[in-house]
Amino acid sequence: xxxxxxxxxxxxxxxxxxxxxxxxxxxxxxxxxxxxxxxxxxxxxxxxxxxxxxxxxxxxxxxxxxxxxxxxxxxxxxxxxxxxxxxxxxxxxxxxxxxxxxxxxxxxxxxxxx
Amino acid sequence: xxxxxxxxxxxxxxxxxxxxxxxxxxxxxxxxxxxxxxxxxxxxxxxxxxxxxxxxxxxxxxxxxxxxxxxxxxxxxxxxxxxxxxxxxxxxxxxxxxxxxxxxxxxxxxxxx
Lengths: 114, 113
What we know:
The structure holds two protein chains of two kinds. The mean pLDDT of chain A is 93. In chain A, strands 2, 4, 5, 6, 9, 10 and 11 form a seven-stranded mixed sheet that branches. Chain A has a four-stranded antiparallel sheet with strand order 1-3-8-7, with no helix packed on it. The termini of chain A are far apart. By secondary structure, chain A is mainly β. Chain A has no helices and eleven strands. Chain B is an all-beta fold. Chain B has no helices and twelve strands. In chain B, the strands form three sheets. In chain B, strands 2, 5, 6, 10, 11 and 12 form a six-stranded mixed sheet that branches. Chain B has a four-stranded antiparallel sheet with strand order 3-9-8-7, with no helix packed on it. Chain B is globular. The mean pLDDT of chain B is 92. Classes of the chains: A mainly beta, B mainly beta. The A-B interface holds A 4, 31, 33, 35, 40-45, 48, 50, 58, 90, 92, 94, 96, 99-103, 105-108 and B 4, 32, 34, 36, 41-46, 49, 51, 89, 93, 98-106.
């Protein structure tokens, strides 16, 4: 089934630990995004990538890094987790030039930093 | 800068009631506008969209009209069902933003039998 796979589904992480959230898509979309969802704040863009090999900062990039070595994968890394990074993280993708068809979202990763 | 403002929830309705969720936006130029829906435990799904003024997006009985004069994109459904219980997000994409969507805070809708 075409779409986006995120892993893990949920995770409890000790503060100070490093964590990588995985995101893989099989639609050959060239643009990918990471959002965090927090109650009352909606979704906020963390990082994005318009095409393989390029990345950019979104609205809330501090404490996060991404890479885009190929079209399909867009991992998000928390170098040293802090409790304020407790959130639900969504990966999404879209076809550049056809953004008005909307994004495809993954099912999310629920991360709790304690 | 760009912003999207939605009415706060939760909105609680009885089955077959009329639903309206207000959404207003601030943006330069001519953004595209979207409504996404998030069912419990799932990611967001595109519900409908409008790409220019006076366009009406519609899907699954939901409708929204792009009103540039009032910078609004209110979501409506004439007769809701329990299965419409979800969180609804209004979003915009500026024409020069390289595809990035900006979301409102979301409105939770609870439909009771």
